[in-house]
Amino acid sequence: MAPSSRRRTFDETLAAAVNDLTENGFTSAERVIFWTNQLRRSAADAMKPVHEAEDALRRALGAIYKRLVERGQIARWHPGIGRFTLQRVAPYLRAELDKRILAATQLIKLNRAQAIDKTLQRFSGWSTSIPTGGTEAADKRDVKKDIAKSLKELPFQERRLHIDQGHKLTAAINETVAKGGGAIACIWRSNFRQANYDYREDHKERDGKVYLIRGSWAQEQGLVKPGFAGYFDEITSPGEEIFCKCYVVYVYTLRGLPEDMLTAKGKAALAARKDAA
Q1: Boundary of a domain, candidates 166, 181, 196
Q2: Has residue 2 been placed in a domain?
Q3: What pLDDT, in 10s, does the model give residues 125-142?
Q4: Nearest Cα to 71, choosing from 61, 86, 84, 53?
Q5: Model pTM?
Q6: What is the DSSP letter of 39?
Q7: Is 239 inside any structural domain?
Q8: Distance (Å, rounded) from C-alpha 89 to C-alpha 15?
Q9: What is the domain range of residue 107?
């Protein structure tokens, strides 16, 4: 019978490498290099093809873009903004999507390379510690589990990458709309009440606070000033920190601000508008 040409799976290769080293020990650098090369190839084979991972990412981010921009759900974070403004900034929103896809696909490749490198580092560190002649003290199951840890966690990490990049895309689209629409402030919203969400304590403390957007038309006209919370550019943005699920609701009118953020001129302007109404 002709020998099978089937390549070993990663688990089979790792088992063979661990068996060889526990039986023979670290006899030479060549022995470790041989198994390191075998593990690198089988680890790459074990991964979902990179083009499939990239396609899945494009679909995930594309679905967010379609929901927010094409279906108009972005308006929930921009009360009162007109449809004309959304149409005017639409090309910039598409550019944000393309930019985020490009950055995320690079992260996929980088994370995969790092997972393989960490796997090989663990194997090399363990294998070179085995005395010549082998050992019976090693728990092969634990050894294999530790060596393969980074590789086994990769699918989970890629799913988290989709989620994190989705939050970052949402935040970038919101910021672009806010700039195009002339937002003057924003209200921070934390998801700290969400079950099982590992929120940041300082993000929870920002919940409900109103931050002034520096250089807005209202500030240039002397109508507004920073309140207790200060300027928006003095804190990290929603989605900027990894796995942040916070968001902001943008304010476009003077009446949407607390009174302490209005200057005397701003209060007079707001009063005049109320009288005119």
Answers
A1: 181
A2: no
A3: 999 999 988 888 778 999
A4: 86
A5: 0.81
A6: H
A7: yes
A8: 56
A9: 9-181
